Amino acid sequence: MQFVALTPNLAIDRTLRVERPVDAGTLHRITAVHEAAGGKGVNVARVLSALGSPVTVAGFLGGFNGQKFRHLLAADGLTGAFHEVVGETRECQIVLGDDPHPTEFNEPGPIVTKADWRLLVAGLPPMGARQFVVAGSLPTGLSPGEYADLLAELPGPVVVDTSGAALAAAVRAKPALIAPNRAELQALVPHTGDPLAAARAVYEEHGVPVLLTLGAAGAAYVGESVHQVPAPRVETVNPVGSGDALLAAFLYARATGWEAPAALRLGVAAGAENAAAGGGARVTRAAIFARYQA
């Protein structure tokens, strides 16, 4: 199985470490800076690649930042298929202080149209059986309804990781899987306080399985069967990308024949390893499997 990690709103992620917690209205001196090709789909691709799965990053790039993004992606050993659009690829600032929970500032991206999306998909390199992982926020220019229509056109099974109105529209397009966190699922099913009950409601109404990330509580899978796995205790350095790592490892395991409970355990191990290793989905196969087997 080949994966296409389609990120509609690619970014350059700039992780800034400061000497103390962020305090509005005061000067903060940055002690370290790290730049990387960013976006939820890129994080998914890093982990899939680390686990040995063929994966192509796809999305829309523009301007000087678009060229920089290509270089950063290549530095990670990942391949990409992109469609150039007018405007500038966005930057996202991730500020880390003493608190393990980051402060994030995400710019809007360039305008992307339905025609741009279709040109991107038409320009993908030839490949065999493929699964699309469509992850992240919608770019300016695409409505949730248009997004759902475009998901339905993709030539292969589709996994969706997004939020808000885009997630509600995606569910109606009947993807193979959605991967919300607790808050995203709660917004989708607002009258159900229990996240597992909310996931069951989505599956029963739409027939769409749910991979539910629960942060420090682990994760759950709700489909024809229901499984929940607690998270191991780790010293969190940076949790950004942990949900993406979980999703990637789960998809890798399922694509290689694992049953859902074992795939879920591998996903939770990958998410925990990402948080302990510093975020950004920079994990290794050996470290993921060491946590899985612990």
Task: Note down, in words, how this protein is organized.
There is one protein chain. The two termini are 28 Å apart. The radius of gyration is 18 Å and the shape is globular. β12 (219-222) and β13 (226-229) form a beta hairpin. The protein has one domain (2-7, 39-83, 110-293): Ribokinase (UDP-N-acetylmuramoyl-L-alanine:D-glutamate ligase, 3-Layer(aba) Sandwich), CATH 3.40.1190. It has 10 helices and 13 strands. By secondary structure, the chain is of the alpha/beta class. It is 38% helix and 24% strand.
Features:
294 residues; alpha/beta; UDP-N-acetylmuramoyl-L-alanine:D-glutamate ligase; 6-stranded parallel β-sheet; 10 helices
Mean pLDDT: 95
How are strands sequenced across the largest beta sheet?
A: 5-4-1-8-9-10
- The N- and C-terminal alpha carbons lie at a distance of 28 Å
Tell me the CATH topology.
Answer: UDP-N-acetylmuramoyl-L-alanine:D-glutamate ligase
Shape: globular
Count of extended strands: 13
Q: Specify the structural class.
A: alpha/beta
Q: Characterize the largest beta sheet: strand count, sense, and whether it forms a barrel.
A: 6 strands, parallel
CATH superfamily: Ribokinase
Order of helices and strands: EEEHEHEEEHEHEHEHHEEEHHH
| Radius of gyration of CA atoms, rounded to a whole number | 18 Å
Summarize the structure.
This protein has 294 residues and is of the alpha/beta class.
